[in-house]
Amino acid sequence: MDMYGTTADTETRSGCGSDDLIFFVNGKKIVEKNADPEMTLLTYLRRKLGLTGTKLGCAEGGCGACTVMLSRYQTHTQQLLHYAVNACLAPLCSLHLVAVTTVEGIGSV
User: How many domains does the chain have?
Assistant: First the structure.
């Protein structure tokens, strides 16, 4: 499986269950076995992964302090699409087979 999860067959071979949430953060594969359906991406990034570059500003999606990039492979068009989303509003459980790029994943000095 590549970092965009283009083959579901690989999921079965890797030992991941069908209820596992699989996604990528800054190129690192994350397998969350018991994802909290009420947790936002912002909370997960800051509390579980320790990535504090994505900030909580207004908690309503208006300020942009929590903006991250999501990359999703579209099988029907065979294209990789990139979206800017507000992590404070994005449910963690909506990220199955999605690549997330935070400010930490952009680069360093």
Answer: 1
